[in-house]
Amino acid sequence: MKVTIVKKIGHYLFYLIELAVVIELYSTLQNFYFYPSVFNFGHAEAFVLAFFTVLVFWFASFLYKSQLADKNEWGFNQPPYFSWWKLGGSALGFLIMMALYTLIMSVIGGGTSANQQDLDTLQQAAGPTYNVMVVFVGPVCEELIFRGFAINIFFNNKSRWVKWIAIVASGFAFGYVHDPTFSPFLLVYWMMGCVLGWVYMTTRDLRYSMLTHIMWNALSVI
Length: 222
Known about the structure:
Layout: H1 2-34, H2 43-70, H3 84-108, H4 114-126, H5 128-154, H6 160-178, H7 186-203, H8 206-219
Helix pairs in contact: 1-2, 1-5, 2-5, 3-7, 3-8, 5-6, 5-7, 5-8, 6-7, 7-8
């Protein structure tokens, strides 16, 4: 019994270390994409960054799939990987997010969050690399972290209650990271995280919550 408990604790600690490594790699990518002038970016540096980005994607996906191989009661990442109903779920999530965003912003009185103000400043300084990070790299990494790893580590026992707790809890973690000051805008980010969690738990495929996330973030750079 004691050996089993020790093994489980060791298992979770190993998973948490993997999650911490992925978060650190994502943070490193953000620095490169948001502050290209610091690294004197040219064509060669851009190629190296693209290669490093692909490597991070591959490594994070490898760890995620390895965790699913250990335990996957929810049936995540199972074929068929493409289906119209999953695509519809992703699109529906996007529409729900737009509707709830409009509602919440009307309740809190509008305005711009501190996080968005910081991003607007970064956009002017970073240039094209900002758009790549916000529209593509960020959604992929954040879905792996907040939906893929977080739900698989902490909410891997399948039940109706666990599903909704996972959606709300991972959504809150997502919201807090984007607004740690607990301003009214935390509700906006929390809502976004919950909708993305719902898309993931409904489609059972991280690609579709990534797609919803990409569509949403694309609005901010159009």
